[in-house]
Amino acid sequence: MPSAPTERRLILLGATGSIGRSTLDVVRHLNASARHRFRVVGMAAGRNASELAAVASEFRCDAVALAGEGPAEWPTPAPSERFHGPDAALELVERVARPGDLVMAAMVGFAGLAPTLRAIEKGCTIALANKETLVAAGSLVNEALARHRTRLIPVDSEHSAITQCLQDAGARAIRRIVLTASGGPFRTWPIERMRSAPPEEALRHPTWSMGAKNTIDSATMMNKALEVIEAHWLFGLPAERIEAIIHPQSIVHGFVEFDDCSVLAQLSPPDMRLPIQYALTWPERVEGRTAALDFDALRSLVFEPVDGERFPAIELAHRVVRDGGSSGAIFNAANEEAVAAYLRREIPFGSISTLVRAALDSLPAEPVRTFEQVSAADAASRAFVRERARDRTTEGATAWRR
Ligand code: NDP
């Protein structure tokens, strides 16, 4: 017999982003259908004060956090607790989170790590979209999950796919997992043209609609590299058993091959609301917003190996998994800084992976046991890339600019 509907407390970090908006769309749908109900008790955002104010009012959310300034006026009902400044999301978690709450970690970048770790320490369940959290501090996150006896459900479509495939299989029977990648907008471009592509082209993703950083990460395949490292921490597999394959249609999200050579895959149209809803209603499945799969589309599915010359990111990810320690934080921070410099048109597209490799070559991978150690590795890597990017800008390498 189905159990009675419950109302679960939800804290949404990154409410104004692509994942945040889709999460609120899923919550609207679930609350209307009454099987799984959510009360959004806290929301955090960066600078988009007007959108945060609007959704906080719609969801009657009592506590909000903004890294930037608040709006000129809060629509009624206004949240009674408001936090501001760079640590606002952390303060929100500190003040509002309770054991058993669900926290959707959908802020972008390293900024998402501290509030997510604090939510784990407070006994919350984590729906994790922010892959940078596991890349930079996978060992800390896993230790905290074990110590506080709570769990993390991946939201990334590929890791959700693997989780769905693994439901009734022991993790030890896995031979390898294969994460699919769209290949981004430059999959078929001549490599030289790709290396000098401007941000407008890199931001034109063929299948997924995402925030700017994630879209650039898809064009370099750093996104898949981050996911390879994320998969290592989620599924406990070594580098050689985590592969990536290009699948431009983004319909198959991941494969698991078992010891008996049986392969399971998860398929659905490219719509993040499906893995978001799965994380929210886990382990149940309920009707959602995503359209049903059109089986005619399966006739033209294509799978291609990743070209390592075009996309060196995957090889770098395998190296990070092997090196361990602070190499994840170095890799992640170098990539965040290089993407920001590219979006400011300070470096060409091709320099993003060159700078990430240079950071890994130059900064030693040290063991990490504390957040402060991760943070120090992050800061050192950012400083390294900023300096190198500045050198490149002053070298006069501006031919690629528009
Ligand atoms: P967006 O850039 O669209 O959104 C990022 C969100 O983070 C915004 O709400 C932004 O607020 C908020 N934010 C940024 N800095 C801070 C801060 N210091 N404090 C509080 N909030 C902050 O990113 P996406 O939604 O695309 O991605 C979010 C995360 O999910 C990323 O880690 C990404 O890798 C991952 N992911 C995304 C997928 C996708 O399809 N988009 C798929 C799988 C994973 P504001 O806009 O107000 O400044």
Task: Give the secondary structure arrangement, pairings included.
Blueprint lengths: L5 E8 L4 H16 L2 E10 L3 H10 L4 E4 L14 E4 L3 H9 L5 E4 L7 H9 L3 E4 L2 H17 L4 E3 L2 H9 L8 E8 L9 H5 L3 H4 L9 H9 L1 H14 L6 E5 L5 E7 L4 E5 L5 H9 L31 H11 L3 H17 L7 H12 L8 H24 L8
Helix pairs in contact: 3-4, 4-5, 5-10, 5-13, 10-12, 13-14, 13-15, 14-15
Q: Strands of the biggest beta sheet: in what spatial order?
A: 4-3-2-1-5-6-7
The geometry reads as globular
> Which fold name fills CATH's third level, the topology of the largest domain?
Rna Polymerase Sigma Factor, Chain: A
CA(first)-CA(last) distance: 63 Å
Number of helices: 15
What proportion of the residues form beta strands (DSSP E)? Answer: 15-25%
> How many DSSP-defined strands?
11
Q: What top-tier CATH class of the largest domain fits best?
A: Mainly Alpha
Helix-strand category: alpha/beta
Rounded to the nearest angstrom, the radius of gyration is 21 Å
Main sheet makeup: 7 strands, parallel
Q: Quote the average pLDDT.
A: 94
Q: How would you concisely characterize the structure shown here?
A:
The protein has helices at 18-33, 49-58, 88-96, 113-121, 131-147, 157-165, 191-195, 199-202, 212-220, 222-235, 273-281, 313-323, 327-343, 351-362, 371-394; strands at 6-13, 36-45, 63-66, 81-84, 102-105, 125-128, 152-154, 174-181, 242-246, 252-258, 263-267.
